[in-house]
Amino acid sequence: MSGYIDIVCNLYDPTAVRLGQTGLDNEFKRQVRMDRALWGGIPVSQYLRKMDQAGIERSLLIAVRAGDLRVQGSFEIPYARVAKICARYPDRFSGLAGVDPTRGIAQLRELDQAVHEWGFVGAHLYPHWFGLAPDHARYYPIYARCAELDIPIMMQIGHNLVYSRTRRLHSVGRPICLDTVAIDFPELKLIGIHIGVPWTEEAISMAWKHENIFLAGDAYAPKHWPKNFVHYANSYGSHKVLFGTDWPVIDPERAIQEIAALGMREDAHRKMMRENAFAVFSRLPNKRARPAATLPTSSRRVRQKK
């Protein structure tokens, strides 16, 4: 195992698919050319084998909150379900608490519980599901609580695709919206996931301007990453970019192989794939500083381009 940390991973098992907790319809699965064998989801135990084969030590598993549940088409994956998986595989998964600004003070209490009782290491926000840009005032109590808890919050920036034809969502996540949030909450670590396409240069400018803004290379196959994003991750922004897949959108083995083919500098690659995750997620357990995991791991390694 290479010790990589995947900071953006969705629960995509048969239960989540059956209960409509993925937000993905079959048209989207065709659009991203998902293997037909995966359409119905795969058990967590099978996904662990994918992680082993890709060299991924730990994945951050999202307890997604996608929209106001009073609105048809919204959904969530309960914190307790993700917490149960993390407890079963403590050396392989850590939880991310999806946040919903429509729940008011209840959301803050639930966030406290997720961190203090269940060991979640960060928060996750899908702005487009709520139709509110990242700098909207309704998120501010959540941002304040994340800062108090010393956890980062990640959010989708850039446009969003049509994940389901029954719920088409507006693109409200322009990266420039992080500018005000970073100024108002300098103690809070903000992670813009999904690269910021098609405003990648705007996303890079935000991460360059603010020491508390970071980016994640996820949701897009690395061989299709914009050249300016690869250059940023491989040079002056090597300390600002983290690795993610957004599984099941990107298969972890494919992601690792395509990143290896980018020919990044060894130190930049190491930072993106592991070190930056520990720098940003202060609550993330470091397996290498703990006793060896009791779970079996594959000895297969993905070759990296030197």
Structure keywords:
306 residues; alpha/beta; TIM Barrel; 8-stranded parallel beta sheet; two-stranded antiparallel sheet; 10 strands; disordered C terminus
Word description of this protein:
The protein is an alpha/beta fold and 306 residues long. It has one domain: Metal-dependent hydrolases (TIM Barrel, Alpha-Beta Barrel), CATH 3.20.20. It is 35% helix and 15% strand. It contains 12 helices and 10 strands. An 8-stranded parallel β-sheet has the order 1-2-5-6-7-8-9-10. Strands 3-4 form a two-stranded antiparallel ribbon. Helix 5 (105-116) links the parallel strand 5 (93-98) and strand 6 (122-125). Helix 5 (105-116) packs parallel to helix 7. The longest helix has 15 residues, at 266-280. It is globular, with a radius of gyration of 18 Å. Mean pLDDT is 91; it is low at 289-306.
Uncertain spans:
289-306
* Overall CATH class: Alpha Beta
Tell the overall outline: globular
The CA-CA distance between the termini, in Å, is 17 Å
Strands, helices and their partners?
Blueprint: E1 4-10, H1 14-18, H2 26-31, H3 44-54, E2 56-63, E3 65-66, E4 75-76, H4 79-88, E5 93-98, H5 105-116, E6 122-125, H6 127-130, H7 140-149, E7 153-156, H8 178-184, E8 190-193, H9 200-209, E9 213-217, H10 227-234, E10 241-243, H11 252-260, H12 266-280
Parallel strand pairs: 1-2, 2-5, 5-6, 6-7, 7-8, 8-9, 9-10
Antiparallel strand pairs: 3-4
Helix pairs in contact: 3-11, 5-7
Quick overview:
The chain is α/β, with parallel strands linked by helices and 306 residues long. The chain is built from twelve helices and ten strands. The protein has one domain (4-287): TIM Barrel (Alpha-Beta Barrel).
